[in-house]
Amino acid sequence: GRPDALPRDLDGRRVVVSAGGTREPLDPVRYLGNRSSGKQGYALARTAVQRGAQVTLVAAATIALPEVAGAELVTVGTAQDMRAAVRQAAVGADVVVMAAAVADFRPTDRAEYKIKKTDREPDPIGLTRNPDILAELVQARADGQIGAQVIVGFAAETGDSAGDVLEHARAKLKRKGCDLLVVNAVGEGKAFEVEDNSGWLLSADGSERAVALSSKSHMASDIWDAVVPLIQA
Ligand code: CTP
Ligand code: CA
Question: What is the DSSP letter of 144?
Fold first, then answer.
């Protein structure tokens, strides 16, 4: 594209974007992970730089992606690492976008040495809940500990017997308390490891906007278009 054709509507803003999937170790060589590519978070960071923001990209595991020139990169492993990095970067930020796929659980025990197989069946893997980074950010803002005027969450949803994609997403927006929720409809090969992405932008004020199937960089522009009016002068 033509960078000079982009609006400079994030000039002087400090933005934090998380990306990729956390990895939760079982032992020094094994982990529980997920299939997040990091593409959407990287696209958001790149677009924010192009629109004038000072960007911190907090990246967990991703596929090989071109670096985001002009952004500060902080790489992390686990959800707990990501929580610390995001929290630190969020202190003076105007906007925090949680595009990362954060593991909900981690193995309760992390073996110091590589786990060996024996003649008997293996023990089950015990799991412990990870902190909810997004919900904690909303709480920290309410407590006056961070600025972050705008907090954006992501949700990858499928419909199930309890409700359709949008019903799940509306409930998640309420539960999380963020200002904007980017909803991806997943299943049937959508969103994960593919170039295109489709869904909705749900705002805390109740407004809802469908986002047409488009590239992740186009989707990033749509997301920033929705965020900018929420930032106060
Ligand atoms: N998230 C987070 N910390 C976690 C889990 C999720 O900050 N421990 C963030 C994600 O980065 C995303 C949003 O919360 O922006 C929603 O993640 P999602 O997995 O869809 O929500 P959950 O509350 O974990 O619900 P679910 O049971 O559907 O996984
Ligand atoms: Ca989750």
Answer: T
